[in-house]
């Protein structure tokens, strides 16, 4: 049924997509009126960062290969200081959510525009959400200044993303779209993007898992991650993301793998209370039970399916349930302590969602 009452704030997004798109980086920097780009990446992607900096020649201010998951405050402080010392007037963040998150942390303080070159499917490049971790607590906020000014999606840069990480990162993207379908601020536009994002990602992942060098499958997955990221940027998240935030922030569980494990259980919890979202997901996944279909797909692609195998202790179930029930937020199904404890216990043991 068409949603007949909604509001929709489109974020200003500039995207260049395609094999070899990264070659247009100098043009994108010039378009911003900038001329000294600090290239940000994770230590593991220093080689990619240096190749990009070399290609920028005189437009490069250097490479900072220090991005880390959840943006520790000391990493952000050091990056801000380096950007100032080097006279950078923009940042190029190449990598996953960690590198883009570091670019956002610099933008938050120094107002430098970010050009994002995503190499995972996490979707941070499409949102104005920043995160910083201090004393073991992750703070997040929204600020239009951190939204990348330009995004270059180049599937060639994703060919080296390990298969396991590709699959879990793909599920991370699907989770954004799933929650956008029942978000309180969804609209027909976000629902279109979400349904197509889920369809494209779940079609692409088996092909990526079979051959990580399949450029067409990589392009499809990256296209899907754009759609799913745009959903995340335009809507408010619910139970699934709150659970993953608590599990990641409190127990330091790996981001994308946690999303992969939790999604089928969070969806099982919510889908009876969100029939239109369930209908869209049934179409996208060609299954009458989208939650079970996602669980089966994760298993067939060799992804983790239990929180226990990610390192969570059974004794963590109660405190996490309490943490997530105590913070109020919109969710299609009522969030109760017993309901969450049951959900977490099933996700912890990895039993089929039901
Ligand atoms: P990540 O950025 O930490 O990357 C994981 C690892 O994969 C890193 O070692 C990285 O160097 C490597 N890698 C990335 N791309 C590669 C490639 N193509 N080839 C080889 N190696 C590659 O992981 P992520 O899952 O993309 O991001 C997670 C972080 O992003 C979390 O901190 C999460 O909270 C944040 N995030 C934020 C938002 C937002 O809107 N603010 C959205 C999604 C995720």
TrEMBL record:
- Which stretches make up the Fe-containing alcohol dehydrogenase-like C-terminal domain? 167-348
| Domain Alcohol dehydrogenase iron-type/glycerol dehydrogenase GldA span(s) in chain numbering | 12-155
What SUPFAM superfamilies does UniProt report for this protein, alphabetically?
Dehydroquinate synthase-like
Tell me which UniProt keywords the record has, alphabetically: NAD, Oxidoreductase
> Which molecular function terms from Gene Ontology are attached?
alcohol dehydrogenase (NAD+) activity; maleylacetate reductase activity; metal ion binding
- Membership in a protein family: Belongs to the iron-containing alcohol dehydrogenase family.
Name of the protein in its database record: Maleylacetate reductase
The species this protein belongs to is Actinomadura rubrisoli
Q: What is the lineage of its organism?
A: Bacteria, Bacillati, Actinomycetota, Actinomycetes, Streptosporangiales
């Amino acid at each position: 049924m068409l949603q007949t009452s909604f509001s929709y704030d489109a974020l200003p997004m500039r995207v260049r997509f395609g094999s070899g798109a990264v070659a247009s980086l100098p043009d994108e920097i010039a378009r911003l009126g900038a001329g000294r780009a600090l290239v940000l990446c994770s230590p593991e992607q220093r080689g990619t960062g240096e190749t990009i900096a070399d290609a920028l020649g005189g437009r490069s201010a250097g490479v900072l290969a220090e991005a880390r998951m959840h943006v520790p405050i000391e990493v952000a402080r050091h990056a801000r200081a380096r950007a100032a010392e080097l006279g950078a007037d923009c940042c190029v963040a190449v990598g996953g959510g960690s590198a883009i998150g570091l670019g956002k942390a610099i933008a938050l303080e120094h107002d430098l525009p970010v050009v994002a070159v995503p190499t995972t499917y996490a979707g941070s490049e499409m949102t104005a959400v920043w995160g910083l971790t201090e004393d073991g607590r992750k703070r997040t906020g929204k600020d239009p200044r951190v939204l990348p000014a330009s995004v270059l999606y180049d599937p060639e840069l994703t060919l080296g993303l390990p298969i396991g990480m590709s699959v879990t990162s793909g599920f991370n993207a699907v989770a954004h779209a799933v929650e956008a379908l029942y978000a309180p601020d969804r609209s027909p536009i976000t629902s279109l993007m979400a349904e197509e994002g889920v369809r494209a990602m779940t079609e692409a992942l088996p092909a990526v898992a079979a051959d990580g060098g399949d450029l067409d499958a990589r392009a499809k997955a990256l296209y899907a991650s754009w759609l799913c990221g745009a959903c995340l940027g335009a809507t408010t998240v619910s139970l699934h993301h709150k659970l993953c935030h608590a599990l990641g922030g409190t127990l330091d569980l790996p981001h994308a793998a946690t999303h992969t494990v939790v999604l089928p259980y969070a969806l099982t919890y919510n889908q009876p209370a969100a029939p239109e979202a369930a209908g869209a997901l049934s179409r996208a996944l060609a299954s009458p039970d989208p939650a079970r279909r996602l669980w089966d797909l994760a298993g067939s692609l060799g992804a983790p399916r239990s929180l226990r195998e990610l390192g969570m202790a059974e004794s963590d179930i109660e405190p996490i349930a309490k943490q997530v029930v105590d913070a109020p937020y919109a969710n299609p199904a009522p969030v109760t302590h017993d309901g969450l404890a049951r959900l977490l216990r099933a996700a912890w043991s990895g039993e089929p969602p039901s």
